[in-house]
Write a structure and sequence with these properties.
heterodimer; A: mainly alpha; two-stranded antiparallel sheet; 9 helices; B: alpha+beta; Alpha-Beta Plaits; globular
Chain lengths: 195, 76
């Protein structure tokens, strides 16, 4: 942030985002906490009809802002018009949801004993990274761990994409095509129309 | 009201605004709000046209316009 405004408690939520990524290296089950980053924004937009989560509480946005502005890691160039187009934003949201569904299906296969637990994190939906060091067994069922590996893959992938576009374009470029941001904006539009 | 000098103010391309709030955080005058989570809205009375919001906007959909001296407020 360029101005010296009084800080609020939520201005430090970037620490939570950073901690989340770090914890995933020690115990993958912490990945479940990432559900909060899905449920809270959806809940706020559905109930209150605004994007307070994006505007104030998004730790990832703050982290990218910090890396790009404070640490000067961003080139601060305009994002290509294609990425900010509606087609790309909704296309990416659709792709993201399909891959999320795929992750849930993999979890279901483990739940129903049709598949085995894979102790790996899939980066950018392509590269399988061995992640056994963050799994120490669980008293819960294997599917609980499988979901954690899958969810952490989603979170790590989106963070990596966010960092790449932070460097290439402006610090919070991720916000332009963030699936949660697109979804919550659409929910807000629908809610506004219906009221 | 007739303005005494050129006034600079920010304008948002509302069709492409993603309502992320980056501009709102930067604005030193508190001139930006995001009502109903749809798009950023600029209060042109408060806006001084500093351009911080345009710099911060990750979608680059904010630009600065200049209202020429003597133009009516209503022409904005």
């Amino acid at each position: 942030m360029g101005t010296n405004k009084k800080k609020n408690w939520y201005d430090y939520l970037w620490l939570a985002s950073l901690l989340y990524l770090i914890l995933g290296f020690f115990n993958i089950l912490f990945a479940w906490l990432g559900l909060l980053c899905f449920l809270i924004p959806l809940g706020i937009s559905a109930v209150k009809g605004n994007k307070t989560y994006c505007n104030h509480y998004c730790g990832r946005g703050q982290l990218l802002d910090l890396l790009g502005n404070k640490l000067k890691l961003s080139r601060k160039k305009d994002i290509p018009a294609l990425i900010r187009s509606r087609g790309f934003r909704y296309g990416f949201l659709t792709f993201f949801l399909i891959m999320f569904g795929n992750m849930l299906f993999t979890t279901y296969l483990v739940f129903s004993d049709a598949g085995s637990l894979k102790q790996a994190v899939q980066l950018l939906w392509t590269f399988k990274l061995p992640w056994h060091f963050a799994y120490h067994g669980t008293i819960a069922a294997d599917w609980v761990a499988q979901f954690a590996f899958g969810f952490y893959s989603v979170m790590l992938t989106s963070t990596v994409l966010g960092i790449i576009t932070m460097v290439l374009y402006k610090p919070r470029s991720w916000c332009v095509y963030c699936p949660m941001g697109t979804m919550t904006q659409q929910i807000c539009k629908l809610k506004d129309k219906s009221s | 009201m007739t303005l005494q000098k050129n006034k600079r103010y920010a304008v948002v391309d509302e069709t492409h605004c993603v309502a992320c709030g980056s501009c709102m955080k930067e604005c030193p005058k508190g001139a930006i709000t995001i009502p109903c989570g749809i798009t950023a809205k600029i209060d042109t009375e408060k806006c001084v046209g500093c351009g911080l919001c345009a710099k911060a906007c990750p979608a680059s959909v904010i630009h600065i316009e200049i209202l020429k001296r003597g133009e009516e407020d209503g022409n904005k």
